[in-house]
Amino acid sequence: xxxxxxxxxxxxxxxxxxxxxxxxxxxxxxxxxxxxxxxxxxxxxxxxxxxxxxxxxxxxxxxxxxxxxxxxxxxxxxxxxxxxxxxxxxxxxxxxxxxxxxxxxxxxxxxxxxxxxxxxxxxxxxxxxxxxxxxxxxxxxxxxxxxxxxxxxxxxxxxxxxxxxxxxxxxxxxxxxxxxxxxxxxxxxxxxxxxxxxxxxxxxxxxxxxxxxxxxxxxxxxxxxxxxxxxxxxxxxxxxxxxxxx
Length: 246
Ligand SMILES: C[S@@+](CC[C@H](N)C(=O)[O-])C[C@H]1O[C@@H](n2cnc3c(N)ncnc32)[C@H](O)[C@@H]1O
Hints:
By secondary structure, this protein is of the alpha/beta class. It has one domain: Vaccinia Virus protein VP39 (Rossmann fold, 3-Layer(aba) Sandwich). The chain is 32% helix and 26% strand.
């Protein structure tokens, strides 16, 4: 299915409100992963990026990209939404990096252009993984890494749509995960554990780690209500995949 037009429309519509609500938290410090803002210093997923060519797939307002540019990476921020790119351009600061309008499904880069491709609830949550993962693999150098954070199947299967929160009751079939309707035709994507392994290996990538970020007790989810509040301390809310191209 082609979710590009509807996802572009959605993110252009919500960009202002989204940044108003979340920018401060996402950008509070460099390298904060996911819904619970867990420092990469604790998770050790990304490694040293100094001098590396880095692509962020779905960079949003560029909170991650500008931090990596400041560390000395040659970063490119790609996003489907013009409004999100506008926000990234406005927040760029002294360490300039290029912003590219495009989609994770059809990356406008030559093969083997990057040492690291990554995202945090970006292009690999908002583009069909069976299209976006092979694209990411294509633009990676040999030895280059694809690192990305997405919601876990646990989190999605326990999401109570009517109540608007994650609970301890299974609400949706695990094997029924795949696409999530985000309104007005916009779609996000969610694979099972086996589905991710199949797509990653199918694109020729080697899985080095699957980190399950675990927030400390009392750490707030900046995006979704959970019941109980310490849900993600007890069950994995996110999957942080670390892979490389052999
Ligand atoms: C939740 S934000 C992630 C960005 C940042 N890490 C954050 O947490 O705000 C999702 C981003 O993915 C972008 N996006 C949606 N569909 C996309 C696609 N098919 N290709 C690339 N980016 C896409 C959206 O425009 C949005 O900026």
